[in-house]
Design brief:
heterodimer; A: alpha/beta; two-stranded antiparallel sheet; 4 helices; 25% strand; B: alpha/beta; seven-stranded mixed sheet; elongated
Chain lengths: 178, 167
């Protein structure tokens, strides 16, 4: 008996992709018009809520060390620490005439380990620092060096929280003048 | 007869475009665009003559008053307040009694703060928190930024947030 090929027995078939393509083209064009390819962010106190609450409690209960960061095009960065009257300074000199941001983060991390409860930093840039250099500096003092964290203890219940934040609360201390 | 039918099929004016690969390309584009589509409802437009610095900050901007310091001038919410020549302020625009104060900028910000305070007094949902988003060009020196921040602080806008491009 001769086998007759019918349309029903055919395993291959075509999907009409034209309407799908129409929809995709409409969505792609809509997204291309409305998408923001450059994202704008903001620099502010970006501490997670748990850490933020704990920092507020510590700041209320303890008299914390005051840390300042002097920014000079001639001498580089200088951390000035005032711990209840005991003053010390840590210098981060320029590297080949430019600010050494990596060293700044390393030295900042060392200071943070000694004063884990301090989250505020007063920055004092000199007049010739540009906005981009100031923002780079803030980026390098916001978080600790990679893979480094510090533990802070809640003074009310003793719970410990680990964080990689270094000095996220930055104040321009010389806005009112030197 | 069979040969004739074959030639007829070849000469037919209708043809099929293979659109499967085209659909693949569009689907990839769609996924990429959906991924980069910003869900933040606050859109900040940056003027052409302003290049913001880049930062690793991940905080989304808030809808607050915009203070723009470009190389050509100082603007408050797109209204030009002071002219700058290549990022340098005209000494006439600085208060002779207080060399950090910019009187024209102070007046605009003070008026704005006054209006917001009045609204906050009658509308509980509005709160005046002194937040200002400073969009400063990456090359602007701190000498000018200090004057702008000082003036904004004196006008009641003490919480200065810096606008940056995400790295």
């Amino acid at each position: 008996m001769r086998w007759k090929k019918t349309r029903a027995s055919d395993n291959t078939f075509d999907i009409n992709l034209a309407p799908v393509l129409d929809i995709i083209i409409s969505i792609v064009s809509l997204l291309l018009f409305s998408v923001a390819l450059i994202e704008i962010k903001m620099i502010e106190t970006s501490v997670p809520q748990v850490v933020k609450d704990m920092v507020e409690k510590i700041e209320k209960q303890e008299e914390l060390a005051q840390i300042q960061l002097k920014m000079s095009k001639k001498n580089g960065f200088t951390f000035e620490i005032d711990n209840k009257g005991n003053k010390e300074s840590v210098a981060v000199p320029l590297s080949t005439g430019k600010p050494d941001y990596v060293k700044l983060q390393e030295e900042g991390s060392k200071i943070k380990k000694r004063y884990p409860a301090v989250f505020s930093l007063s920055v004092l840039p000199e007049k010739d620092w540009s906005m981009s250099e100031i923002v780079s500096t803030l980026d390098h003092v916001r978080k600790m060096s990679p893979q480094q964290t510090v533990e802070i203890q809640d003074p009310t219940n003793g719970n410990k929280v680990s964080t990689d934040f270094m000095f996220p609360n930055v104040v321009f201390a010389n806005i009112l003048g030197e | 007869m069979g040969m004739k039918r074959h030639l007829d099929r070849r000469n037919s004016s209708s043809f099929k475009i293979q659109i499967t690969s085209l659909v693949d390309v569009f689907v990839i584009m769609l996924v990429f665009l959906l991924k980069s589509y910003s869900t933040n409802p606050i859109a900040i437009s940056v003027s052409k003559d302003l290049t913001l610095p880049e930062s690793s900050s991940t905080v989304d901007p808030k809808e607050i008053i915009n203070l723009v310091v470009a190389r050509t001038g100082i603007f408050v919410d797109s209204e030009k307040i002071l002219d700058l020549v290549d990022g340098v302020i005209n000494p006439k625009d600085v208060d002779p009694k207080d060399n950090s104060n910019l009187p024209l900028l102070f007046k605009v910000l003070d008026d704005h703060a006054g209006r917001l305070r009045k609204i906050a007094n009658v509308n509980e949902t509005v709160e005046f928190d002194g937040n200002v988003l400073l969009q400063a060009d990456r090359s602007v020196p701190y000498e000018l930024l200090q004057k702008v921040m000082y003036t904004s602080m004196m006008a009641g806008y003490a919480n200065v947030k810096l606008a940056v491009y995400a790295k």
